[in-house]
Amino acid sequence: MSGINYSEKIPNNVNLSDDRTLQRALEQWQPNFINWWDEMGPEGSTDMDVYLRTAVSVDPQGWAQFGHVKMRDYRWGIFLNPGQDDRTIGFGDHKGEKAWNDVPGEYRSNLRRIIVTQGDTEPASVEQQRHLGGTAPSMYDLRNLFQINVEEGRHLWAMVYLLHKHFGRDGREEADALLQRNSGDEDNPRILAAFNEQTPDWLSFFMFTYFTDRDGKFQLCALAESSFEPLARTTKFMLTEEAHHMFVGESGISRTIQRTCQVMNELKTDDPNKLRAAGVIDLPTLQRYLNFHFSVTIDLFGADESSNAATFYSTGIKGRYEETKRDDDHILKDRTYPVLQVKDGHLVTKEVPMLNALNEVLRDDYIKDSVSGVERWNKVITKAGIDFKLRVPHKAFNRNIGALAGANVTPQGEVVSESEWRLRAGEWLPDTEDRAYVASLMRRVVEPGKFANWIAPPALGINRQAADFEYVRFS
Ligand SMILES: [Fe+2]
Ligand SMILES: [Fe+2]
Fold first, then answer.
1. Is residue 1 in a domain?
2. Quick one: pLDDT at residue 451?
3. d(CA 244, ligand 1 centre) in Å
4. What is the pLDDT of residue 4?
5. Per-residue DSSP letters for 113-140?
6. pLDDT at position 1, please?
7. CA 20 to 30 Å from 452, out of 26, 66, 138, 413?
């Protein structure tokens, strides 16, 4: 035994110090996790002291304690939101029955699969973002990147806890495999395609945290409705952390827009070449990045018609977003939902059984939520007196999953020929030139209170710290 002081080293509210089986499993896994962090976590960060928040309990005062720590010493904890003893199942065939504290044998493999798929995305994003520290636009942003990275690490712990505690030996094997797959690895990639894409620059990072972490929010919200209590309670607590990740994305893009608009007004131009010469990211380039990240992310919700989605719902494993706030029968057997497809060169809707369309239902809820932040970005543009609007592309644009996979649809929702789509793809998606330009802006600026030229400072510091606060100490 390695002599871990459990409540000190691994903050938790799952009685870890009394649970010998769980201790043994975690003791075996934890050194592999630290090895993974050293090899695949934020590059060159070992000696840095980072001003991080750590969750040490689930009550409002305890979950956000701030202080400078080395990331490999971060106290990754295990937390379940407080439960209700008498919670009943809110949807599906078991509606009204008592929620499960243990895994029902017949649902074991589906539950495990859902937990593994969610768990796999957490370390994947850390891997995708591991080089970004080298080009941080400020110390403030560097700290936010690291905060997200350690919290995704904690989310991995959260899923590993469920696997270790509830799935025996195969759970332990799955927990090990979560450290063995790697983002973009040819032989052993991460499970979902978007998590094998690179996050090569900070514009991509902000788009990723706005759009793709928001996919995380919606998946977690659907799992927070689960009949399996430990999964529901774990994901509820993860959601409190996810909010900050999306804030980093939304404010990061907002500050980028603010700076671009400022230079547009100074130079009295909207010419992308002149703006690039002045070292800021022109709004059409931002739109192309937005189109890319939005379309790749909505694919994550899966095929628009899916019998797995129906099974997960009917068996009570995964609910809808805000299941309890909906006033229908929560069984959905005789309801339908419209899905899109291309027919004779046109987009048409087809009504399908709602149970099979639950991926589409969640995708549509996600789209509504992501549009609202884009409107807030547009307010920054309007406030600067500039006539330009960012728009979320049509849901059929650039899709690779389901009935719309490979359909040639413009961001405005118009079906075009394949040759036209190819010809015009450079108008809609970042091309090599855009990416090279954005990459050329990526230089490390880390003096306290200084910011790269392409991005405006934030309105407020983290935990209300001053503008020149030393968020990261380098040795
Ligand atoms: Fe996460
Ligand atoms: Fe996240």
1. no
2. 98
3. 11
4. 59
5. HHHHHHHHHHHHHHHHTTTGGGG-S-HH
6. 40
7. 66
Ligand found nearest the CA of 121: 1
Q: How far is the CA of 245 from the centre of ligand 2 (A)?
A: 5
Q: What is the CATH number of the domain that holds 384?
A: 1.10.620.20
Amino acid type, 471: Y
**How far is ligand 2, taken at its centre, from the CA of residue 330, in Å?**
28
pLDDT of residue 5: 66
- From the CA of 237, the nearest ligand is 1
Q: How far is the CA of 150 from the centre of ligand 2 (A)?
A: 10
Q: Which domain range does residue 467 map to?
A: 6-473
**Ligand closest in space to the Cα of 235:** 1
- The set of residues, in sequence order, having a beta carbon less than 8 Å from that of 258 and lying 6+ positions away, is 380, 384, 456
For residue 60, how far is its CA from the centre of ligand 2 (angstroms)?
Answer: 20
Residue 392 covered by a domain: yes
**Per-residue model confidence (pLDDT) at position 155:** 96
Is the pLDDT at 251 greater than 70? The verdict is yes
CA of 422 to the centre of ligand 1 (A): 35
Q: Decide: 232 and 223 in contact? Cβ < 8 Å.
A: yes
- Provide the number of structural domains found in the chain: 1
State the CB neighbour count (10 A cutoff) for residue 208. 25
Percent of the chain with pLDDT over 90: 89
At 299, which amino acid appears?
A: D
What digits encode the pLDDT tens for the residues 101-137? 999 999 999 999 999 999 999 999 999 999 999 999 9
The beta strands (E) that lie in 372-459 are given as: none
Cα 237 to ligand 1 centre (Å): 11
φ/ψ of residue 198, rounded to 5: -80, 155
Residue the block writes with tokens 């928040």? 53
